[in-house]
Amino acid sequence: MKISFPTLHTLPGRQLLCCLALLLVLPFTACDDDSANSPTTTIRPKGPKPEWAPTIKPEMQTVIEALDSLSKGVSLTSLTPQQARLAPSATDAAMAVMKNFRIPAPTPQVDTTGQRIPVAGGTIRVRIYTPKNATASMPGIVYYQGGGWVIANLNTYDPSARALAEQTGAVVVSVQYRKAPEFKYPTAHNDAFAAYRWVRDNAATLKINVQRIAVAGESAGGNLAASVCMMAKTANVPLPVHQLLVYPIARYDMNTPSYTQYAAAKPLSKPLMQWFFDKYLNTPTEGASPLISLTNASNLQGLPPTTVINAEIDPLQSEGQEYAAKLKAAGISVTTKVYEGVTHEFFGMATVVPEAKEAQALAATELKKSFQ
Where is each Alpha/beta hydrolase fold-3 domain found (predicted)? Predict the structure, then answer.
């Protein structure tokens, strides 16, 4: 509401006092340019809902529109892996929405350091998120990024790793495993397991309580987190206390109900998943391995408590829920939820997508239960 006042020095004394009193009691209203800084900022998309996502929420649609704008309509499947690694990501799109709607970045609550750790045949990078002013032995989370085992890096999934550290009070070690096609299956899986063992071996230096280490990951990283639990079980290495699997790749099967319904979804589509598989697997027959098709594992008993988070508008929804059901059938404590109206990659977008904030809170709650 805007109110126009006469020039104050022209008013008679009584009217001047009335105007001053009114100014004191009027609520402050920011100008239009600043109103987007408010926590109540309404994020609205520019266009109609896409045909492939009739249930998409406005905030999620706005991120997808930003991604379309940044990518200029170029599909990752038309690029080489090296080119695709330089293409705009969903994280870039979320940051663009924050900029467009003047949403400030949260104040960091963790300190970060980076280093290289040894793996078979070389080294890989990790980023360590330590809660500020940490002094005691804390829980730890080994976090694996998504990207189809082909693209993405530590920065792409920084919002997710940072949020987990802040909301659980755990030290998060984010792992940049080697990527395909330069490093084919099972390199990423072996790197992931090596990183888990390294965290265990260096827990004291990292200020981590070795008895309270969990694994977490998104998409291909969710697949790796689940695989690390299976590999630890086989190798008689102490298992993680929890596995957080966010829209994990859990089947080498692109004929599931969600693959059919959301074949043209963004940012992950059926053709893009085929592109990822083609780059990582040496042969299609490797897709049947329980480390790729988690649902093919014959013995899931003894695995840790699990949280499975899926997005509704995502080709991977069906297989994530199928794996959750198989874990439950094996007697594993499982918490699972499908978040409606959002797409693959939503989890790290808590600054702009309400469902991401809810999913992060659920993940933190379940992780903390296992840390107790």
Answer: 141-347
